[in-house]
């Protein structure tokens, strides 16, 4: 299988607008296997549906739509695919200086400037904020010109005023600082994405990165703030969350389908990541849905 580097995505603002606002109906924006980055900051609202998100070195599962903000050049995979079953997806993209570089120094813009700085590591917002802001994003999308811009600034202000969010990448996740790092780490991410159901050895990964195993381990930890084993386990556990929520498979089948070849190790790792056993997670998830 060919492993592509993260694609650079060229983004063009809407006609008569200083930023881009796009609405995709269900299944229209299938980019879940395209690892890409762009200088624009991106706000994504997925209305309903469930799926996996990979933003930087964070892999996580969302179960009832999503609202995320990603900073400039933060590599990510698309949020939706044909299995997401979302109603629609809103994508807003804007350059950091889309209103001129000086604007973020104004006292009125201080809160938003802080938000955009945090977004460099990726931010996911709570259920409550997602529902409130999602409706406003849709309303903004259907507005014209100045009204659209005013509503957009209102949305950014609302996101900057809440404490109901989670930073997705621990530490300083500025993958974009060096192009060769970006290329190398993305090569590794793509390999894990394509092979997480198989056994992946440190020797293989060190080879792929043209490094010796100890150097590879140090390098990976420095860039992602986690060990390679943690990263692969996180990928596998996130896949298992998706299967437990969406597929009528037995827990043993979920274990092997997610790339674990030892049931007790799967249970132990699952509990470390979620605080629950797989059967407890499934029971609670089904209870929530009902």
From TrEMBL:
> Domain HTH araC/xylS-type, which positions?
186-284
Top-level taxon of origin: Bacteria
**Matching Pfam families:** HTH_18
| Claim: Transcription regulation is one of the keywords in the record | yes
| TM helices/strands, residue ranges | none
**InterPro entries from the entry?**
Homeodomain-like_sf, HTH_AraC, HTH_AraC-typ_CS, RmlC-like_jellyroll, RmlC_Cupin_sf, Tscrpt_reg_AraC-type_HTH
Q: Mind listing the GO molecular function terms for this protein?
A: DNA-binding transcription factor activity; sequence-specific DNA binding
Keyword terms: DNA-binding, Transcription, Transcription regulation
Among its keywords, does the record have Cytoplasm?
no
PANTHER family reported for this sequence = ARAC-FAMILY TRANSCRIPTIONAL REGULATOR (PTHR43280), TRANSCRIPTIONAL REGULATOR MTLR (PTHR43280:SF27)
| Record's protein name | AraC family transcriptional regulator
Organism encoding this protein: Chryseobacterium formosense
Q: What is the lineage of its organism?
A: Bacteria, Pseudomonadati, Bacteroidota, Flavobacteriia, Flavobacteriales
């Amino acid at each position: 299988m060919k492993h592509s580097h993260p694609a650079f995505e060229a983004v063009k603002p809407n006609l008569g607008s200083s930023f881009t606002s796009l609405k995709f109906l269900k299944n229209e924006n299938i980019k879940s296997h395209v690892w890409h980055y762009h200088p624009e900051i991106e706000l994504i609202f997925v209305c309903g549906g469930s799926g996996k998100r990979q933003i930087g070195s964070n892999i996580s599962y969302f179960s009832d739509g999503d609202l995320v903000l990603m900073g400039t050049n933060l590599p990510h995979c698309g949020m939706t695919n044909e299995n997401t079953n979302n109603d629609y997806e809103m994508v807003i993209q804007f350059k950091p200086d889309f209103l001129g570089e000086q604007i973020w120094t104004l006292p009125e813009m201080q809160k938003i400037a802080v938000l955009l700085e945090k977004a460099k590591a990726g931010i996911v917002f709570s259920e409550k904020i997602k529902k409130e802001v999602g409706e406003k994003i849709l309303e903004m999308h259907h507005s014209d010109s100045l009204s659209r811009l005013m509503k957009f600034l209102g949305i950014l202000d609302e996101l900057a005023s809440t404490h109901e969010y989670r930073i997705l990448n621990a530490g300083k996740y500025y993958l974009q600082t060096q192009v060769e790092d970006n290329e190398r780490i993305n090569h590794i991410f793509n390999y894990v994405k394509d092979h997480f159901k198989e056994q992946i050895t440190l020797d293989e990964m060190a080879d792929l990165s043209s490094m010796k195993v100890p150097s590879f381990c140090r390098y990976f930890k420095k860039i992602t703030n986690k060990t390679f084993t943690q990263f692969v386990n996180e990928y596998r556990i996130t896949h298992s969350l998706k299967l437990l929520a969406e597929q009528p498979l037995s827990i043993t089948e979920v274990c092997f389908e997610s790339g674990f070849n030892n049931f007790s190790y799967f249970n132990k790792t699952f509990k470390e990541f979620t605080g629950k056993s797989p059967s407890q997670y499934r029971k609670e998830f089904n209870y929530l849905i009902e």
